[in-house]
């Protein structure tokens, strides 16, 4: 009886995980095509990104206030040093990622955008080595080189523009 309950719990978690991943993919694909459609008529992608990030900031502030009110605990306040050292680099990288991605829709197709966007894995691996979150290993270098080679072959023909 215990074994059956464990299997049902495992299957339920697997189905839930699969459902959440599929939901994420649907939203991700949807927002990609929405951004491409929006930049066709609204030629200010960096302003669009500014509004996007401002809305995220407002929703984050609202959710933080709601959690604080419902949990009755004091919120964690970071010092300016922590903000500058830990939060600002991530925030700047995210803003550049979203802003430049939206800007790219003015010049490239959605398929090239999607192929190129998958190079984020390379940057994550490189920065994890720089910040010593990962150790330099031969297997990791091989994975990075294989991903880079695959991305190069995948996008090479798509970037041969006829100017």
From TrEMBL:
<feature type="transmembrane region" description="Helical">
    <location>
        <begin position="46"/>
        <end position="67"/>
    </location>
</feature>
<feature type="transmembrane region" description="Helical">
    <location>
        <begin position="12"/>
        <end position="34"/>
    </location>
</feature>
<keyword id="KW-0472">Membrane</keyword>
<keyword id="KW-1133">Transmembrane helix</keyword>
<dbReference type="InterPro" id="IPR050186">
    <property type="entry name" value="TPT_transporter"/>
</dbReference>
<dbReference type="GO" id="GO:0016020">
    <property type="term" value="C:membrane"/>
</dbReference>
<dbReference type="InterPro" id="IPR004853">
    <property type="entry name" value="Sugar_P_trans_dom"/>
</dbReference>
<dbReference type="Pfam" id="PF03151">
    <property type="entry name" value="TPT"/>
</dbReference>
<feature type="transmembrane region" description="Helical">
    <location>
        <begin position="138"/>
        <end position="156"/>
    </location>
</feature>
<feature type="domain" description="Sugar phosphate transporter">
    <location>
        <begin position="19"/>
        <end position="163"/>
    </location>
</feature>
<protein>
    <recommendedName>
        <fullName>Sugar phosphate transporter domain-containing protein</fullName>
    </recommendedName>
</protein>
<feature type="transmembrane region" description="Helical">
    <location>
        <begin position="112"/>
        <end position="131"/>
    </location>
</feature>
<keyword id="KW-0812">Transmembrane</keyword>
């Amino acid at each position: 009886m215990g074994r059956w309950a464990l299997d049902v719990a495992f299957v339920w978690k697997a189905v839930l995980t699969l459902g959440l991943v599929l939901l994420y993919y649907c939203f991700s694909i949807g927002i990609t095509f929405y951004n491409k459609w929006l930049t066709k008529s609204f030629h200010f992608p960096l302003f669009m990104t500014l509004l996007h990030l401002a809305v995220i900031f407002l929703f984050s502030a609202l959710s933080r206030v709601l959690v604080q009110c419902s949990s009755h605990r004091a919120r964690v306040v970071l010092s300016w040093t922590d903000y500058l050292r830990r939060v600002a680099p991530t925030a700047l990288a995210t803003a550049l990622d979203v802003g430049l991605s939206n800007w790219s829709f003015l010049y490239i197709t959605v398929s090239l955008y999607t192929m190129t966007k998958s190079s984020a894995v390379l940057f994550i691996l490189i920065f994890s080595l720089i910040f010593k979150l990962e150790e330099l290993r031969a297997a990791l270098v091989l994975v990075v080189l294989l991903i880079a080679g695959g991305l190069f072959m995948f996008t090479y023909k798509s970037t041969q523009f006829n100017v």
